[in-house]
Specification:
Length: about 220
């Protein structure tokens, strides 16, 4: 019974022909090289939490030490002529907070060489944690056009296969719509699982950093 259900679900996810049309649903992505990106360097509050466990006095001391390290980090980045902005969230704290709001800096990086240099310099500081932050990409419309072109080509290939197997001739596109790629239940379950495992906003390939842009579309083709 399980195998029968899976087969029917898979057929549904590929598309179907009814009343003179074939409808195909596709999800895919493109890789985009960032023009620049930010490297978020924040104070690791876990190293200071133990200082605040014995009462209000020690909590103030812990915060003072964190602020000291925050200022030291800023002086270091400025001395190296990095462009950066403050990531200081303390203003959004309400009542008491278990731990401390993250304080740090977003450092602007233009290429992977500069990133390697910065990370090497920061490894001497055992009181910070860091990760890739926001990325600045090429013109939005340019990358979106490239992604839609890829998606439409894939829907056409799949629709042509379905038409051939159904003894039909594929016609023009009669309907097109963009859909949420995960929320739409007609996607194959294994496709959704694979995407959730592989989905990432950025990655590395041959020593270069890249971002990913995802979209999902449904395209309806006329048939003869």
């Amino acid at each position: 019974m399980k195998n029968i259900f899976y087969t029917l679900f898979l057929i549904t996810s590929l598309g179907y022909s009814q009343s003179g049309f074939i409808e195909v649903e596709i999800r895919d992505s493109i890789k985009i090289k960032p023009l620049s990106f930010e490297y978020n360097v924040t104070i690791d509050d876990s190293r200071f939490l133990r200082l605040s466990q014995d009462g209000e006095k020690n909590e103030k001391e812990a915060r003072a030490k964190m602020n000291q390290k925050f200022n030291e980090l800023g002086v270091f980045l400025k001395s190296k002529s990095y462009q950066f902005r403050i990531l200081h969230n303390e203003n959004y704290e309400i009542h008491s907070y278990i731990g401390f709001m993250k304080s740090g800096y977003a450092v602007k990086i233009n290429n992977i060489i500069d990133l390697n240099t910065l990370t090497a310099e920061l490894k001497t500081m055992d009181y910070i944690i860091a990760s890739i932050g926001e990325m600045e990409y090429e013109e939005e419309l340019k990358s979106e056009k490239r992604l839609f072109k890829k998606l439409i080509n894939k829907t056409k290939e799949k629709a042509e296969t379905i038409a051939e197997l159904s003894g039909l001739k594929l016609g023009r596109i009669i309907e097109f719509k963009e859909v949420p790629e995960i929320d739409n239940i007609t996607f194959n379950i294994m496709d959704i699982y694979t995407t959730s495992q592989e989905r990432k906003e950025f990655g590395m390939e041959k020593g270069n950093l890249f971002g990913e842009k995802w979209k999902a579309i449904i395209v309806k083709f006329a048939t003869k």
